[in-house]
């Protein structure tokens, strides 16, 4: 179900590029962007009041990346301060779609953009599971109240 971005909570995470994040050319190694985006989604969920270990213990579910489409736009380099913006763009009963952008903080140059589909899984069987009601209410309070 496509969502109106105006009614959704956004996440923003600052990340410093360390030497370990770079390749031999001194730019951020492509796979590191996946780490940055994962941290941003985790912090976004934490900001809504949900720690992933508690979600697993209390609801018996976990979240896993199911699909990702990523574009590398501009190189980030050692010691750059980056910002990872995160917003939900769509959802289902057992999935969430995110748009994420990694930008250089000093000039807002986008370095990387991705769409990420996250599946909610039963932690024991690793099969799709409905996203817990309290999480959906926190993520989509207005849409949820209207019965979307």
Protein model, in words:
It is a single chain. The protein is of the alpha+beta class and 148 residues long. The chain contains four helices and five strands. The protein has helices at 32-47, 52-59, 133-139, 141-145, and strands at residues 10-16, 61-72, 81-91, 95-104, 110-122. The chain has a five-stranded antiparallel β-sheet with strand order 1-3-4-5-2, covered by helices on one side. The longest helix is centred in the first third of the chain and has 16 residues, at 32-47. It is elongated. Mean pLDDT is 89; it is low at 1-7 and 142-146.
Number of helices: 4
Adjacency order of strands in the biggest sheet:
1-3-4-5-2
Q: State the major sheet.
A: 5 strands, antiparallel
Strand content: 35-45%
Counting copies of identical and different chains, the oligomeric state is single chain
Low-pLDDT segments: 1-7, 142-146
Mean pLDDT: 89
The radius of gyration over CA amounts to 16 Å
Query: What percent of the residues sit in helical stretches (DSSP H or I)?
Result: 10-25%
Structural class: alpha+beta
């Amino acid at each position: 179900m496509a969502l109106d971005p105006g009614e959704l909570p956004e996440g923003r995470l600052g990340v410093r590029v360390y030497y370990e994040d770079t390749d031999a050319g001194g730019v951020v190694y492509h796979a590191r962007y996946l780490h940055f985006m994962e941290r941003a989604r985790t912090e976004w969920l934490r900001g809504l009041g949900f720690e992933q270990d508690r979600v697993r213990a209390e609801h018996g579910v976990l979240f896993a990346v199911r699909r990702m489409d990523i574009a590398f736009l501009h190189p980030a380099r050692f010691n750059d301060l980056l910002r990872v913006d995160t917003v939900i763009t769509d959802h289902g009963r057992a999935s969430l779609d995110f748009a994420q952008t990694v930008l250089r903080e000093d000039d807002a140059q986008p370095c990387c953009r991705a769409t990420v589909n996250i599946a909610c899984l039963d932690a024991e069987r690793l099969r799709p599971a409905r996203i817990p009601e309290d999480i959906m209410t926190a993520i989509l309070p207005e849409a949820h109240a209207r019965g979307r």
